[in-house]
Amino acid sequence: MKFRWILFLTLLLSGCSQNIEVDNSGERLEDSPKPAANPNAAPLARAGATEDEPKIPPFVKAYFMHMWVEALYSPPQNKHPNPKWESPLKDPVDGRVWCTDCHVSGQIDFSKIPKVRSPMVADLEKDKSFMAGLMKKWVERLNSEEFGAKAKLKGTVTCLTCHATNPELE
Ligand code: HEC
Ligand code: HEC
């Protein structure tokens, strides 16, 4: 039991760091993998990135995912929550959206990934474009016919379900 837990955490973490390792064994420049984007690059430069940032550890995203899933059934804890927030779920008690509604691969049980607030979380919370990028993907999948969450909703969820004003302009 314990071993399986460690195994899947290792899988998660190794899957994530794959992109970062650059092998400097003397191969020609054009053969070598593209270096990972500089994590300290200016936020504005990063705002233009369309690819998800590979060096954000899955655990950090897991924290935000937990916060966001909780905001579907209890008042959101973002900076300026919608004062008239009400749960977009048909049944916020027995019909909650859960990790496995969207993470359906079954190879990793996402519902077992704990909510841990690391120092990196505090930095990323202030990174508007990073946060908005994540939220857009999540909202899109939430409203998508292809996943199990939509059937649990009263109607379409938008940013303003949880945020008082457009969070990208705040
Ligand atoms: C409404 C759909 C939805 C729900 C519910 C959901 N997720 Fe996600 N999650 C996504 C999408 C889409 C992504 C990929 C986009 C991204 O974050 O880069 C993602 C990404 C992640 C990642 C990052 C994976 C990686 O390789 O970096 C983790 C970890 C994660 N989710 C954990 C959870 C946990 C834990 C829960 C339950 C508390 C949960 N998710 C619930 C849609 C969802
Ligand atoms: C189900 C509720 C919910 C929805 C829908 C939602 N958010 Fe959020 N949002 C949150 C929560 C909760 C946080 C706080 C996460 C944290 O800091 O840990 C947050 C944080 C943010 C932040 C960081 C600043 C802040 O207010 O804390 C931005 C930017 C953001 N969201 C953008 C968006 C955008 C853009 C959309 C629509 C595509 C969206 N959100 C939809 C719940 C939601």
Quick structural summary:
By secondary structure, this protein is an all-alpha fold. The chain is 38% helix and 0% strand.
Key traits:
0% strand, binds heme C, 170 residues, mainly alpha
What are the SSEs and their pairings?
Layout: H1 2-17, H2 43-47, H3 58-70, H4 99-102, H5 119-125, H6 128-142, H7 159-162
Structural commentary:
The chain has helices at 2-17, 43-47, 58-70, 99-102, 119-125, 128-142, 159-162. The chain has 170 residues and is an all-alpha fold. The chain has a domain at 57-170. Mean pLDDT is 79; it is low at 14-50. The structure holds heme C (HEC) (2 copies). One heme C (HEC) is lined by residues 52, 58, 61-62, 65-66, 69, 97, 99, 101-103, 110-111, 113, 134, 137-138, 141-142, 149. Residues 64, 67-68, 71-72, 76-80, 125, 128, 131-132, 135-136, 139, 157, 159, 161-163, 167-168 line the site of one heme C.
Alpha-carbon Rg, integer: 18 Å
Assembly form of the protein: single chain
Class from helix and strand fractions: mainly alpha
- The tally of helices reads 7
- Topology order in helix (H) and strand (E) letters: HHHHHHH
Q: Mean pLDDT, as a whole number? A: 79
Total DSSP E strands:
0
Helix content: 25-40%
Shape assignment:
globular
Extract low-pLDDT stretches: 14-50
Q: End-to-end span in angstroms?
A: 45 Å
Major beta-sheet overview: none
How large is the share of residues in beta strands? under 5%
Q: What ligands can be seen in this structure?
A: heme C
